[in-house]
Design brief:
By secondary structure, the chain is mainly alpha-helical. Helix content is 78%, strand content 0%. It is built from 3 helices and no strands.
Amino acid sequence: MDPNLGWGAVLGAAFVYEMYGVFNKTDGDTLSERLRDWFRISTRGGKAAFVIAWLGLTAWFIPHIINGG
């Protein structure tokens, strides 16, 4: 399978599901709502865990893309 086709299908499906969640007005269907629940953002520890995870992902992802490694 062509990787562009595979990743396009994955990202396209994610986008379609996100739009479904945005427009159906049901609580808990969007990625941001799921992240708030998974990380328990309403707690101080949850906020800290999310920020640390996000910064870790960013610290890895940006050099990975820019440097091709």
